[in-house]
Amino acid sequence: MVKREPHDDTARTISHRHAKIPATNLRVAIIGAGRLGTAFAIALARVGYPLAAVVTRTAKNARRARTLIIENTPNAHQSFIPLALDAAHLDAVPPCDLYIFATPDDKLCDAAARLAAVYQPASAYANKRPVAIHLSGARTHHELDSLRAHKFQIGSCHPLISVSHPVKGSDDLAGAFFALEGDPAAVALARRIVKAIGGRVLQLDTRHKTLYHLAAVITSGHSVALFAVAIDLLQRCGIDRRTAQKVLLPLLHSTMQNLSVYTPERALTGSFARLDGRTIESHLAALAAHDETTLDARRIYALLGKRSLELALEQQAAKASMEAAREIKLMLEDAMSDERMND
After folding, report:
1. In a shared domain, residues 226 and 242
2. Which residues constitute the domain of residue 54?
3. What angle do CA 314, 316, 320 make, to 5 degrees?
4. Which of 70, 239, 315, 324 has minimal CB crowding within 10 Å?
5. Residue ranges for the chain with pLDDT beneath 50
């Protein structure tokens, strides 16, 4: 039998009279209960998945995660109050059907190997093939390969959202897309829990996981970096950074709204959509000062301008438009050529 941590509560059941969703008997352990892991745990508990254990680097953090889970699952039905364990007590994790790894990406292999080293299924689980999935967007299911020695089915299940707080994140998981890949049985179970919490499934070929994650980074992280460049430019107008952020956010929101309705080429607005060469020329001239911040902005403007020009031309095919586009393309190429010379 798997040992339990001697100084923690054993898993106890708690029922709620106003439960809306029937419980499942599939038991879950969360290994790595940070923001995303805790958000996932809350979402699962709300739809009746019994949580057997939450594991974090320290017992204090595990207890904090458990408290958040209990406080934010008022409608859970026959939900287990999970064990709260530190990483040194993986041997105290009760036998489960599903192990969800939500550790940092570079800790996944180690966490899986640690569980593999102490894993001992109870007799009731002797003929079952447990499932382990991780929530990383960058890594494939092979990070969990060490668990194959215990006949685990392994996969990955990445929610395509940004989670900055576990409680809000648990709400945001409903409606989010989840990228799934791995062994068929692991993918099937991941699909089941995604649908249970209100998510949507995106099936991936394992070979494409890195490209998928690259798209996510450009959409989220690089958008933030681009937004910071815009703030830098407004700061040069004498506007403080906090005000600059407030000023630019409504514009960003309106762009997102356009993208929620239209394709990128139709959502494009502004100077490039109008093929306004005179304005584009003035933009490049304003970015001609040779300090590092301005040079970076000029590089970004020219490179993304080239892509914006391609989108604009997908909407405009008139001869006059093509002539205007050629002039703009030459401006952008000159700007990029100047930057290569400066490098």
Report:
1. yes
2. 12-218
3. 135
4. 315
5. 1-22, 77-79, 341
